[in-house]
């Protein structure tokens, strides 16, 4: 009797834990996931595992934690018209415009859905020009270019594509000072925080949740 009762309690507890886990998973599963297509430029020699570990995996963990959405990355290489894009130059407005055209052509050619849950990043070995580590279309929020020059550049540019702003970025003290992802300039001696600021987390979550 004692054993049976204990087994009942254990079964009930297990059922409750399992139910809670399923509910948490359901919430994430029900929300539309974010898909980021990352075109690896032909000039990048770093292997995908290192790229993912240093530039993306921590960002995905942070994004998933406050959006309650799955974040899928799709790395693409050797895609003519995209991975050989001429991103280096002085006129960044023109470069961003041409990159948006290239992405638009890719979306059309592959008949891909167009909505705010799909973002397109070009990952490059070099900066766009001196002092410009990446660029993103903060207006349409579809396409951006990020160099590998600092570990936070893809998170910075993707942050713009998700409604994040420089103004909402923060310096955190842990206790050493670090810069959150959307800080607009690097300060010597400051570390990277590898997170978005609380204000940018709110802006990003609001952007993804709006109308859905
Ligand atoms: Zn920026």
Features:
212 residues, 42% helix, 8 strands, Collagenase (Catalytic Domain), binds zinc ion, disordered N terminus, alpha/beta, five-stranded mixed sheet, globular, three-stranded mixed sheet, 5 helices
What's the topology here?
Elements (H helix, E strand, L loop, with lengths): L1 H29 L3 E7 L7 H20 L3 E6 L15 H18 L8 E7 L9 E3 L6 E5 L5 H9 L9 E3 L3 E3 L11 E2 L5 H12 L3
Parallel strand pairs: 1-2, 1-3, 3-5, 7-8
Antiparallel strand pairs: 4-5, 6-7
Bound molecules: zinc ion (ZN).
Explain how this protein is built.
There is one protein chain. A hairpin with a 3-residue loop joins strand 6 and strand 7. This protein is an alpha/beta fold and 212 residues long. Strands 2-1-3-5-4 form a 5-stranded mixed sheet, sandwiched between helices. Strands 6-7-8 form a 3-stranded mixed sheet, with no helix packed on it. The site of zinc ion (ZN) has 4 residues, from helix 4.
